[in-house]
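Colleagues,

For the teaching module next term, I've prepared a clean inverse folding example: a structure given as tokens, and then the sequence designed for it. I'd like students to try predicting residues themselves before seeing the answer, so please don't circulate the second half yet.
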């Protein structure tokens, strides 16, 4: 049974939320959530290998942030129930849903079986999380379609 959330958990959630408000992190999150819709592993890797670009820095900043947060959850540092509150983790589900269809291929091409593994574990280890991922994956597919239509017109 999961431990009951503590005041320390609440403080950590607030600190993590505050880090998301840092100006460069806001730019990175805006790019990830609103502009970056990879259609394949190669689309993702094109940005991942583009060292020195703003998009590469944003990709690494947001990925690193959520990697740290999910490690806290998996190691029991942060209460999972608080973490899974959509107001806090909703963005993580959106980000992971964008690469979920081809995360295995990304791992293979990077030769890194650990890539996004803690994120995947944190997102999929509960029934609620798996259901939320399925919902968010459907939403991302609709958003990808709209983005493709905008680019075509």
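(Answer key — instructors only)
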């Amino acid at each position: 049974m999961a431990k009951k959330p503590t005041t320390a958990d609440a403080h950590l959630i607030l600190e993590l939320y505050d880090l998301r408000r840092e100006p460069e992190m806001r730019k990175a999150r805006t790019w990830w959530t609103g502009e970056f819709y990879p259609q394949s592993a190669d689309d993702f890797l094109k940005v991942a290998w583009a060292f020195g670009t703003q998009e590469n820095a944003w990709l690494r900043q947001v990925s690193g942030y959520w990697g740290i947060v999910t490690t806290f959850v998996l190691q029991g540092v942060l209460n999972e129930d608080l973490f899974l509150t959509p107001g806090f983790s909703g963005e993580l589900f959106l980000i992971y849903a964008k690469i979920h269809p081809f995360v295995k291929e990304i791992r293979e091409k990077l030769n890194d079986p650990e890539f996004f593994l803690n994120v995947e574990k944190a997102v999929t280890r509960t029934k609620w999380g798996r259901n939320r991922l399925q919902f968010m994956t459907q939403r991302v597919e609709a958003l990808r379609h709209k983005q493709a239509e905008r680019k075509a017109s």
